Amino acid sequence: xxxxxxxxxxxxxxxxxxxxxxxxxxxxxxxxxxxxxxxxxxxxxxxxxxxxxxxxxxxxxxxxxxxxxxxxxxxxxxxxxxxxxxxxxxxxxxxxxxxxxxxxxxxxxxxxxxxxxxxxxxxxxxxxxxxxxxxxxxxxxxxxxxxxxxxxxxxxxxxxxxxxxxxxxxxxxxxxxxxxxxxxxxxxxxxxxxxxxxxxxxxxxxxxxxxxxxxxxxxxxxxxxxxxxxxxxxxxxxxxxxxxxxxxxxxxxxxxxxxxx
Length: 261
Fold this sequence. Notes:
By secondary structure, the protein is α/β, with parallel strands linked by helices. It has helices at residues 63-66, 71-74, 79-83, 86-98, 119-125, 181-187, 200-213, 231-245, 251-260; strands spanning 9-10, 19-22, 25-27, 37-40, 47-50, 54-59, 103-108, 166-170, 192-198, 217-226, 246-249. The protein has 9 helices and 11 strands.
């Protein structure tokens, strides 16, 4: 077989792991280059991270969760609570993009026929069959609830999305099941994950837990995650993150830390 002669990349995305051709041979060495260190004020301990190995997961900021006329609004949930992280997120995400930290929108999007959902998800999603659940017609007439391609799965209009951002669908509380999230993160050589999203004690915490189980370093951005659950659920989530899974930061302090370094 004739050896390759090109010295160009043979992979996807500028930051993704890839093979190259060097002096007529396929180079399998995946070098990240020098670490881009940043020290962040965090709880329960300050942390130093490599920005070159970091990404942020923005979970479930979708119309059905935090827009008027969406699924949660129709259930009487206080949208002000769920929408509180929008402003800090809109300040934080441009800074992360500027530091070449990938922004990954991890959004719930079920099959319209619900064949990807187990009975437990269908039961609890519909409050035991007493309310509209996944892929049922929306009471507001805006389409099937959280069905792939529907109005409800779209990212809230108030959040600024960049064309270079990455989009991944999920179909469980944890964003690591039945999709390609883990493969994408590993191909991007990500080792540290920031977490933002709705709901803190459900999808955000479940995804963070699975990330920790898979070996990722986990950092919750506290004011960029919200829930409609009672305060004791919030307290429990914060306790578990600090006790077992990772660290917690505030977005404003994080911005100051990044700007100073």
